Amino acid sequence: MVRIDDRLIHGQVAIGWTKMLNATVIVVADDPVAADPVQKTVLKAATPIGVRSAILGIADAAALLTGPKLVREKVLVVVKGPAPVLDLINAGIDIKRVIIGNMRMEDGKKRITKEVAANETEWKAFRELNDRGVELIAQWLPGGDSKNFNEIIKKEA
C-alpha cells in the first residue's frame, strides 16, 4: 500500500495503518528526509516494534521495492505528497491505489478536503495520477470515512 502523509511515520501510520495491513516493513521514500540523519533517526524510533523501516531517497526506495528483498513482506510505502508517487511509478513501481492522508494547509495551498491541502504543483501531480488510472482515496484513519479523490479531481477540472 502507498500512503501520502506529510508526517511520514507517526501514530496513525505506526499503529493504525501498519496494524490494519499487517505490514512488516515501512518504506519512507523522500530524498530530503533520507539525507537528514536526525530525521531518519526520529522516523526509525517511531517505527513500531516488530516492523522494520527503511528511510530512503526515491531512487533507492524504487530499487528496494523492485528488488527481491521485500518479495515476501507486507510493505507500507509512505511519501509526503503526490509527486514522489509519480517518481516511484516512473521508476518502475506498479502503483494502482494510493491512500491520501494528511497534507497540511500552508501558504500557497488550497484546502481540498478536511485533511488534504495542495498547491498547484501537488494538484497537477494528483491530476496526472488520476489520468494514469491510479485509484486515489482520501482517508485519514484506517476504517474511517473515505472519499473518492478521483471524483474530487474530476469535479475540480
Question: In a few lines, what is going on in this structure?
Answer:
The chain is α/β, with parallel strands linked by helices. The chain contains 7 helices and 9 strands. It has one domain (about 1-155): Phosphotransferase system, sorbose subfamily IIB component (Fructose Permease, 3-Layer(aba) Sandwich), CATH 3.40.35.
Description:
The two termini are 27 Å apart. It is built from 7 helices and 9 strands. It is globular, with a radius of gyration of 15 Å. A 7-stranded mixed sheet has the order 3-2-4-1-5-8-9, sandwiched between helices. A two-stranded antiparallel ribbon has the order 6-7. The chain has a single domain, classed as Phosphotransferase system, sorbose subfamily IIB component (Fructose Permease).
Distance between the termini: 27 Å
Helix content: 40-55%
Oligomer: single chain
SS elements, strand count = 9
Secondary-structure element order, N to C = EHEHHEHEHEEEHEEH
- Briefly note the structural class of the backbone: alpha/beta
The description of the largest β-sheet is:
7 strands, mixed
Reported CATH architecture = 3-Layer(aba) Sandwich
**Helical run tally:** 7
